[in-house]
Amino acid sequence: MTEQQPTADTHDMTWVLDRVVQEKDVLHAVLFTTDGLVLAHSSGLHRDVADRTGAGSSSLFSLGRGLAEFAGAPEGTTPGKIIIALPDACVLVFGAGHNTVLAVSVGAEMTSPEVAVASAATIKAIKGLAPVLSARSRARTA
To answer: Around Cβ 71, how many Cβ atoms within 10 Å?
Structure first.
């Protein structure tokens, strides 16, 4: 019998998100499926905020996929990163693994060094753990 690869839907990935949040000015992180189901969130974030973040960010990720053709990429291309710039803050939304997305909030302007460091730390975590950050496809119910 072969052992199944651990994935974010079977193992707690909070520790990964808590490490990302240790970077300067990183506020929160949420890992969720492409359809918005929260798999893990950083320790300092309330679950209800994580749920709303997962729902909203999965919609953005889907929108990014739909806009691929507009950007000259093949239709349905998965976005690598989506940036939402807010006054004195930004949200970074990354494709994490198969069927998963990772959102990170940073309390700094989009062009600040802190956002660049947060982005690099998140990408490093994703590249190092991509198979584990994946989620199995969920069965559809009738």
So the answer is: 9
What contacts 106, CB < 8 A, 6 or more positions away?
Answer: 25, 26, 27, 89, 90, 91, 92, 112, 114, 115, 118
Is it true that domain 14-129 has CATH number 1.20.1290.10?
Answer: no
Pairwise CA distance, residues 31 & 13, whole Å:
8
For residue range 43-86, list pLDDT tens digits in order.
Answer: 999 999 999 999 999 999 899 888 888 889 988 788 889 999 99
If DSSP codes are grouped into helix, strand and coil, which group holds residue 20? helix
**Amino acid symbol at 17:** L
User: Would you call 66 helix, strand, or coil by DSSP?
Assistant: helix
SS3 category, 111: coil
Assign 3-state DSSP to the chain and report helix, strand, coil percentages, each to 5. Answer: 35, 25, 40
The domain locations on the chain are 14-129
Evaluate whether 109 touches 92 at the Cβ level (below 8 Å): no
Dist. CA 31–CA 78, nearest whole Å: 16
